[in-house]
DNA sequence: CCTACCGATCGGTAGG
DNA sequence: CCTACCGATCGGTAGG
């Protein structure tokens, strides 16, 4: 009956539009009017739900971190062990950013635009998970399946960074290969292969038994 | 005697300031007044040397590409062969972007802000070099020293991408490891190790003979 | 949530 | 008449 929006809906629409626009054009390249137009409301209406443009940016970042914390258990509890577990975790990671490249783009932009704040964000949010991932890498390392000159902590960060950048600029960079849609496929497959072969000293061919 | 600037000096100063500001704050986050202030002239003076802000952006990108074309011979002619040549090329690549992270930041920003134009830029500028690099990787592959499931073209692009991103966001991301300056060192070393071990099936320990 | 505005600053250009 | 600028202001738009 009531075609009027329920409260909270407008906020969600504003957040969604802002996330998409800011990921595409940046914070400075996105005006409150752009967001208002995308939602179909007036500019003051936007500022009724969020007190300032800066608050909208914070909310967009916060929603990304929420999704991240939500996906963390799935990432960490990815089944199996050893090389199989790596593939499972890496696949989940690719899915997380692949299903919404805007997340990756927003994170890259934040790193460029506000390096100091972004550093703190990384330390506060990624650090806990980083510890667990590093532990896993070190465990595999002690079992002698991995490269002995591997820097576990640095590796985890760089692998994560590769996934983020791949999804942030992948469509642009992968086009340098060729025009076909297979270009993206090859690109993503090679990213996974690089991360895997940089981790395991003996490249996994076919899992025998396990 | 004459403390007056010779012609061309002002243009170079504007270009330098614009490159630094746009790399740090983006195109939309940099005003003509910001550039004018950085150089110490008026805004109309800036617009006398470059007809518009857009022309300044084009000039900044152009200067990066000039440096790139200038560094290309050094990159391609990096001595030795096989794994030694890889290290030489990769080191030169790291130096190119490492000596001016603003270049890397500007490229990443362009990829985010103007994906279509950036794609054309990649195709026009990086493509020729890409062919040579891919050929080199394929040659090594046929000699059986490299992973047989390696996608040469995709690998080259991703390796290049890793160097660009490492230098664009390195100081921010590497801080996630720890506060010390050694963090950056470890970070860069691990990037090189990942690229190398993803390329060569047998990790190089010590060059014997050759 | 709208219309109607503010101080300021945007990119760009006027006359001199 | 040219260049290399200046102070002032253009029409619009930013965040609020």
Provide a descriptive summary of the structure in words.
Chain A is an all-alpha fold and 210 residues long. Chain A has 9 helices and no strands. Residues 1-6 and 203-210 of chain A have low confidence and may be disordered. In chain A, 35% of the residues are buried. Chain B binds a DNA duplex (16 and 16 nucleotides) through helix 3.
Per-chain topology:
The structure is a homodimer of 210-residue chains.
Chain A: H1 9-25, H2 32-39, H3 43-49, H4 53-76, H5 82-98, H6 101-113, H7 115-142, H8 152-173, H9 182-197
Chain B binds a DNA duplex (16 and 16 nucleotides) through helix 3.
Q: What distance separates the N and C termini of chain A?
A: 57 Å
Q: Mean pLDDT of chain A, nearest integer? A: 84
For the sheet with most strands of chain A, the description reads: none
User: Count of helical segments of chain A?
Assistant: 9
Which shape of chain A, going by the Cα principal axes?
elongated
Proportion of β residues of chain A? under 5%
Helix content of chain A: over 70%
Structural class of chain A: mainly alpha
H-E string of chain A:
HHHHHHHHH
Q: How many E-type strands of chain A?
A: 0
The rounded Rg of chain A comes to 20 Å
Biggest interface, chains and residue tallies: A-B, 53 and 53 residues
The low-pLDDT segments of chain A are 1-6, 203-210
The quaternary structure here is: homodimer
């Amino acid at each position: 009956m009531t075609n009027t929006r329920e409260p909270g809906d407008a906020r969600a629409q504003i957040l969604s539009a802002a996330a998409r626009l800011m990921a595409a054009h940046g914070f400075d390249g996105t005006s409150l009017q752009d967001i208002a137009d995308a939602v179909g409301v007036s500019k003051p209406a936007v500022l009724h739900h969020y007190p300032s443009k800066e608050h909208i940016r914070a909310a967009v970042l916060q929603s990304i971190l929420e999704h991240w914390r939500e996906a963390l258990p799935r990432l960490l509890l990815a089944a199996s062990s050893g090389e199989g577990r790596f593939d499972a975790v890496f696949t989940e990671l690719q899915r997380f950013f692949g299903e919404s490249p805007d997340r990756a783009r927003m994170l890259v932009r934040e790193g460029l635009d506000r390096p100091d704040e972004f550093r703190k964000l990384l330390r506060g949010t990624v650090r806990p998970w980083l510890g667990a991932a590093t532990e896993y890498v070190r465990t595999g390392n002690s079992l002698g399946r991995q490269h002995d000159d591997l820097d576990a902590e640095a590796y985890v960060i760089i692998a994560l960074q590769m996934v983020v950048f791949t999804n942030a600029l992948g469509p642009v960079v992968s086009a340098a290969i060729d025009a076909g849609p297979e270009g993206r496929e090859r690109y993503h497959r090679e990213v996974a292969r690089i991360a895997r072969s940089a981790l395991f000293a003996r490249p996994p061919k076919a899992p025998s038994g396990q």
